[in-house]
Amino acid sequence: VTRSREELPSARPPVDGAAEGGCGVIGFASTVPVAARHMLQSLEQMRNRGNGKGGGIAAVGLDSEQLGVDRGTLEQDYLLAVAYLDASVRKEVELFVKNAYEIDHVHEFPVSEDWGSIEGLEVRPPDVAAYFVRPRAGMLATFAESVELPHGLPPTERELADEYVFQTSFRLNTHFYAGDRGTQAFVLSHGRNLLVLKMVGYGDDVIRCYQLENLSAHVWIGHHRYPTKGKVWHPGGAHPFVGLNEALVHNGDFANYEAVCDYLAQRGLKPLFQTDTEVSVQVFDLHHRLYGYPLEWVIESLAPT
Predict the structure, then answer these.
(1) Model confidence, pTM
(2) Domain spanning 24-231: which CATH class is it, in words?
């Protein structure tokens, strides 16, 4: 009987290898700096695991000289990377940033002039400026009067500054990206010695468009996005997403997205970019940085998703 069944026609449609989904992910860490160009081959080979609507990279342990600062500034300042979809709002965004921070240095990541020659790239990548910033003392003092960490102890200066940066970026994103004004600018990353760049495209497109081939770092993540939860047609929806000091990419979707959104809303945080990745890293940041859970507990808390 089983042999006779082998003659039955197959109802399974032919598999198109190029249409395989599920996100393409690469990540590695090295004791010596590695240039971004060494991710290109792996990302190119995984293009079948994306749809060209969202790609990004993250780098940790950067080279201070390549960014135009000294080592102390790289390690002590927050690296606030802002993507400009509408160049006309830059002065307004920078006024927002200057009111909140002391700006020690600005490093530009301009889009390559021949970005349009990259096959399949349909949307111009946003111009990116990376601001090395420190919270203004007066603003931080005012903020300290209104914040209390979950552990009930007075926050340290670092804990206070971290939360100030997190909330300031949330306000910037709300005003310039998720509000009534439309998608004009948004924060890519804001941690120390951490950089995220992303766009509508593939992860390897990010490296080429921003001419990052020689940019060195000790830790790299690259990602091609395949649609799961939320919008995929805007650069803010691409991976990686950041909490504060961490960047997250993943393969597949988090099944309880709506429940996690409700969980975060009960704790004063509403997602802005409508993706499961965003809420996942926000839970990670909440549990690790604010609640003080050790890493093992954080992973266990995320596992049910």
Answers:
(1) 0.88
(2) alpha beta
